[in-house]
Amino acid sequence: MTIDTSYKQLYDEEGFVIIPHLIPEVSRKGLEDAAEHAIAHTRSGGWKLRRTVGSQFPPYDPNSPDAWGVQHVMHPDMGEPAFAKWYTSDPLVEAVRGLLGCTEDELQMELFNMLINPESHAFALRWHRDDVREKAAEDEERQALNVWHRGVQWNTALYEDSCLYVVPGSHRTPRTPEQRARSSTQDPPENPLDMPGAIRVTLKPGETVFYNNNILHCATYDPHQKRATLHACMGDTRGGATRARNILQHGLFWMKESRFRETLDQRGKNMLNRLVKMQESVNGDLGYSQVN
Ligand SMILES: O=C(O)CCC(=O)C(=O)O
Ligand SMILES: [Fe+2]
Predict the structure, then answer these.
(1) Crossing angle, helix 5-14 and helix 90-100, to 10 degrees?
(2) Is 51 helix (H, G, I), strand (E, B) or coil?
(3) For residue 158, what are the contacts with CB-CB under 8 A and spacing of at least 6?
(4) Closest atom, ligand 1, to C-alpha of 164
(5) Is residue 245 in some structural domain?
(6) How far is the CA of 75 from the centre of ligand 1 (A)?
(7) Does 14 fall in a domain?
(8) How many angstroms is it from 216 CA to the middle of ligand 2?
(9) How far is the CA of 67 from the centre of ligand 2 (A)?
(10) Can you give the residue range of the structural domain that contains 56?
């Protein structure tokens, strides 16, 4: 399958695009079961690598009673090979390759997490860009937005998901004074649609939104609305060290262990090799880790 070039055009212009059917029918049940297990394991306290209610970014407060995300679902200790199998599956890899405009030999394995509804606490993320400070002056913002990091991030919904809000096109331009005012507060928005230009993104089961992680976005989490959304990113090796800051802060020691490598098919192993090479080239460690 090659993806329609209009997807890439939309992604480049709007900063996001929705693509259906990236979960092969044969994989769906396996992924749902894996997701249920990962959620139960996290809520019971068995899985410590979680995004906790009260924290927007890492480090996440380990003492929080509730979680809005499960981190590192491909970790061998999770014991769910369905996740890595999907991450390296044909339809997904083809879509990513199309959006990055790269060859398969340039694809770099990165993060794979899951976004879930908190069990009993409403929570929200304030308006932000993942890799530009909220306080950045207009010039700094413009400069940061001009750098193409050669990576894509996505949310694939197993169940209907209306948590995410974005401002289309905002990945290319600094915030207007009004947008800046509404994204400089520490408080989550009372009504995200008050943000000029904002839209709510609704995914039907099986749909994927790919979004530039520097698009202005926020999210609201309702404990009564079931969410199990696969949240991942993949890079293109031509991005080199520009990808390091975002990726390596998440604690990836476990990805260098042979125990993890052994769970991957050949394509996955090749993608992982490129991540390790990138990490070694920036001479960094693999970030903090809550388990290792
Ligand atoms: O929940 C979402 O869909 C968005 C998550 C997000 O913005 C983030 O993790 O930075
Ligand atoms: Fe974000």
Answers:
(1) 60
(2) strand
(3) 23, 31, 32, 35, 205, 206, 228, 229, 230
(4) 3
(5) yes
(6) 20
(7) yes
(8) 8
(9) 16
(10) 5-281
Tell me the best of 125, 163, 203 to mutate to test the pocket of ligand 1, counting ligand atoms within 8 Å of each CB and taking the most.
Answer: 125
Which CATH number belongs to the domain containing residue 271 in this structure? 2.60.120.620
User: In angstroms, what is the span from residue 282 Cα to ligand 1's centroid?
Assistant: 26
Nearest-angstrom CA–CA distance, 54 and 61: 8
Name the CA dihedral angle for 100, 243, 73, 103, rounded to a multiple of 10 degrees.
30
258 lies in some domain: yes
**Mind listing the pLDDT tens digit of every residue in the chain (292 residues)?**
566 789 999 999 999 999 999 999 999 999 999 999 999 999 999 999 999 999 999 889 999 999 999 999 999 999 999 999 999 999 999 999 999 999 999 999 999 999 999 999 999 999 999 989 999 999 999 999 999 889 999 999 999 999 999 999 999 999 999 999 999 988 899 999 999 999 999 999 999 999 999 999 999 999 999 999 999 999 999 998 888 877 877 678 899 999 999 999 999 999 999 999 998 888 654 444 333 2
Alpha helices in the chain (DSSP H): 5-14, 25-43, 82-87, 90-100, 138-146, 177-183, 244-248, 258-261, 266-281
- d(C-alpha 239, C-alpha 114), whole Å: 24
Torsion angle, CA of 128/134/138/140, rounded to 10 degrees? Answer: -100
Split into its structural domains, the chain has a count of 1
Chain center to CA of 262: 24
**Atom 5 of ligand 1, residue of closest alpha carbon:** 219
Q: Which of 4, 22, 7, 38 is nearest to 206 (CA)?
A: 22
